[in-house]
Amino acid sequence: MLNNKVAYITGGTKGIGLGIASVLLNAGMRVAISGRNLDDAKAAALQLSSDPSKVLAIQSNVRNFEDEDKALQEVKNHFGQVDLVVANAGLGHFAPVDELSVEAWQDMIDTNLTGVFYTLKASVEALKKSEGYFISIASLAGTNFFANGAGYNASKFGVVGFTQAAMLDLRKYNVKVSTIMPGSVKSHFNNHEPGDNDEWKIQPEDIGELIVDMMKMNPRTLPSKIEIRPTLPK
Fold this sequence. Notes:
Elements: E1 6-9, H1 15-26, E2 30-35, H2 38-48, E3 55-59, H3 65-79, E4 84-87, H4 102-130, E5 133-137, H5 150-170, E6 176-182, H6 204-216, E7 225-228
Parallel strand pairs: 1-2, 1-4, 2-3, 4-5, 5-6, 6-7
Helix pairs in contact: 1-6, 3-4, 4-5
Protein name: SDR family oxidoreductase
Pfam family, one: adh_short
Family: Belongs to the short-chain dehydrogenases/reductases (SDR) family.
């Protein structure tokens, strides 16, 4: 069912993005992964496969629409189609609101929220053509606010609202749009170095498996917003 379909994943060089890419490849899909550094993207692509007919590395900063527009053109030129787009790139800065810098606020809004819009804007016509799927990776922080999280909460609440509205706009074209809201994930988020102490968390490949299940769901049914969390948090 998924054989030779094409996915584009932002923030695909490590963590959640790389885990998703690995699972999609194993399901028979072809994948393009992007990151801000081309060398990192190429190294991650080689981790996945040495076959350029299956994996494409792209340099793109989601904060720049021109980058994302060019990235989607690269995907179409290389693979001929786009069936799935996963807007995964994101970052976090955490501080009380009275101490949160303007630069940190802008960094999160530009990357986490505006970046999702740019990725969808750049890919929407290709997704209409393929009757494809757009998935944003939000967070449980998009529905649960917490101290020191004003900027991060704002960006992720925004991603959830944006994606749900986009779902209503695009379903008439048979384009599916969903948001996934993970809790704690074993990843490099916020400069964390994953290790054995993270085994209780959601694993990146778990999110990949969820996306495969979503892709295989009967077209009449749309899981538009999905919360996932560790079964037994520490």
